[in-house]
Amino acid sequence: MKGKTIMKRIISLIIIAVLAITSVFALAACGNDSEKITIAIPNDTTNEARALLLLEDLGIIKLKDGAGITATPLDIAENPHNIEFKEVEAAQLPNVLKDVDYAVINSNYAIEANLNPTKDSLGIEGSASAYGNILAVKEGNENTDIIKALKAALESKQVADFIASKYDGAVVSVVDDLTDGYDSSVDYSALAGKTVSVAASPTPHAEILAVAKDILAEKDITLEIKEFTDYVQPNNALGSQGAKSSVTICGNTGDDV
What gap in Å lies between CA 257 and CA 28, rounded to an integer? Predict the structure, then answer.
């Protein structure tokens, strides 16, 4: 085929968790078979491995036996299409899409770049994916009333309805037993006037937390949402000594709340 035909699509990977997010493959395919295909993938350990595992599931590459959640391009056993992989910081993937043939983009960054994971996708990570997002708290705070109150708000029907209407399947909630927003075992009167601080990425986590914020406000509890632009910073904010953030929404761990 003469010339070069550009076709941009998205491959979304649905990640299951209490507050599930998606990751997205945005694809720009070359029409000239003689040209090397370049795929940009996240350079952080978890998302890079996920990208490679999805490519293997799609039959594009084959990984070495035993390569799993720490897989890197060095673990590729078969690369029949002679793909060149470009490792890029996850947040920058939408920006480099124009310069590569394919890119693996986490859905929060895809959504911010006006990419629709469900409507434009070419392939989707299955619902059996081991990767998910968790609500993480500092050790010792797991069973405090304020954390129970936050958890109940996040697992509410209000939040689930918001996710369904806002993200049209690009973000999913898999909470089995939705609450009314509140935990009957919590003494909400004792929490009146208190603040809980949560570190999260802007999209979709901060948007989802805003719904929980309104629920907690009904009980005079303040939810302070601290936005960070990548996945590492919220974890650092949670773990640092003297940090104000007592909770974080973490991605790609494969754990449940």
Answer: 36
